[in-house]
């Protein structure tokens, strides 16, 4: 409620820190209580719930005045309700989840170079799009409802394509799936840039952004699955923490780079996102030529793109 850029920066940093902790606790808890027979279903429900919440969060933008206090009140009520089942549950936390297993970021990079680099670029892409996408849509004539639908389509695309991409990654080299998804994302963003100046229909633009979201949102899940194939079971929680850290770094610098690009070029956001996806494809192709695919594959699990999968942007430009 304090309209001050410094306060917003500090609040956003604190929010990101807390979200990272929340995701680590939830994911390690679920991994600890799940059995091999139920882990896929349990974590899939968790991931799909996160994506559906992303859609709901964007659509909430269409029903409230972003310059008023009602949206903050609704979000506060939702957070309060979320604490109720935690306060009432009698479940005890699992013990010895990843205890004793340590793996540093550099050690993880040496073991599986594909993972950290792609995770960094995924964080940059998702954070830049979901933080600045509303501003980008506003600059090109979308009203408040149109912005909400525009952003929700991206998350809906990720929701719909998460399982098909995961199914493919279970049967093919996961790196090939990531490369193909990056190429499709770059192509859909190029189409979006091409169509926007021509007053294309909202349906065409929504389909483009849905394809973009459908190819960038699940990429983090595929990368996590690939890293999980490479590390030992006792190291997965530690490896997940490393990926979360790298993803957070990418999420922090992505909007900064994209914001500078938007101030320089009309389609600066689109150019930034295309560049990131091309870099994913290039790095993926390079790693394919340098190392053989993993023979053992664990089950694919849908993970929400953390920690900035949903961002409500005020209607006026340059905010949040």
What this model shows, in words?
It is a single chain. The chain has 320 residues and is mostly helical. Helices cover 73% and strands 0% of the residues. It has eleven helices and no strands. The longest helix has 29 residues, at 5-33. The chain is globular. Residues 306-320 have low confidence and may be disordered.
List the SSEs and their pairings.
Blueprint: H1 5-33, H2 39-63, H3 70-88, H4 105-111, H5 114-139, H6 144-171, H7 174-195, H8 202-216, H9 219-230, H10 236-264, H11 268-290
Helix pairs in contact: 1-10, 2-6, 5-6, 5-9, 5-10, 5-11, 6-7, 6-8, 7-8, 7-9, 7-11, 10-11
Structural class: mainly alpha
What amount of the residues lies in strands? under 5%
Estimate the helix proportion, in percent.
over 70%
What is the molecular shape? globular
User: Mean pLDDT score, rounded?
Assistant: 79
Per DSSP, the total helix count is 11
Q: What sequence of helices (H) and strands (E) makes up the elements? A: HHHHHHHHHHH
State the major sheet: none
Radius of gyration: 19 Å
Separation, N- and C-terminal Cα atoms: 12 Å
Q: What is the strand tally?
A: 0
Spans of at least 5 consecutive residues with low confidence:
306-320
Give a summary of the structure in a few sentences.
The protein has 320 residues and is an all-alpha fold. The chain has helices spanning 5-33, 39-63, 70-88, 105-111, 114-139, 144-171, 174-195, 202-216, 219-230, 236-264, 268-290. Helix content is 73%, strand content 0%.
